[in-house]
Design a protein that fits this description.
Blueprint lengths: L1 H18 L7 E8 L2 E3 L2 E5 L3 E8 L5 E5 L4 E6 L18 E5 L4 E8 L3 E6 L11 E7 L3
Parallel strand pairs: 1-4, 3-10
Antiparallel strand pairs: 1-2, 4-8, 5-7, 6-8, 9-10
């Protein structure tokens, strides 16, 4: 009797897993923006795999997340912010950029294509100079 209950449980779990469909491949990363730093300072992701990055702004002012030059595809940001918040009062072309107002959380989806180490910074005037920088490490898949 006990064996049949265990077998039923295993079969039931397998059936539920099959109903859920294929799992979504990819990496999920959370970054917190505070005044004036990112936590963590260093993020590692796999090359060629989809990434969902969540930016939680726990600071008292708006912050963004920028990588000036990186080879990426499938980029989709929930908010790239108003143009007037950028340094030098213009909206430069960044390969990765998204924005979170104070107290908000936003997401960015992308796939990094080339391994390397890339600087992350906040492009809001004075924030990078105040030390709001970090690094994104794109690692080869094993």
């Amino acid at each position: 009797m006990m064996q049949s209950k265990v077998l039923f449980s295993v079969v039931f779990v397998l059936l539920l897993s099959a109903c859920a469909g294929p799992s979504q491949p990819g990496t999920e990363i959370s970054v917190e923006a505070i005044d004036f730093a990112y936590q963590p300072l260093s993020i590692t992701i796999p090359a060629g795999q989809p990434v969902t990055l969540t930016l939680k702004n726990s600071g008292k002012v708006e912050h963004d997340f920028v990588i000036e030059k990186i080879n990426v595809t499938d980029v989709e940001a929930s908010d790239s912010g108003p143009a007037e918040h950028h340094q030098m009062r213009h909206a430069p072309e960044f390969d990765l950029h998204f924005f979170a107002r104070a107290g908000e959380t936003e997401t960015l989806q992308f796939t990094a294509l080339e391994p390397g180490t890339y600087e992350i910074f906040c492009s809001i005037e004075g924030h990078k100079e105040a030390g709001m920088t970090g690094e994104l490490i794109v690692a080869n898949q094993e």
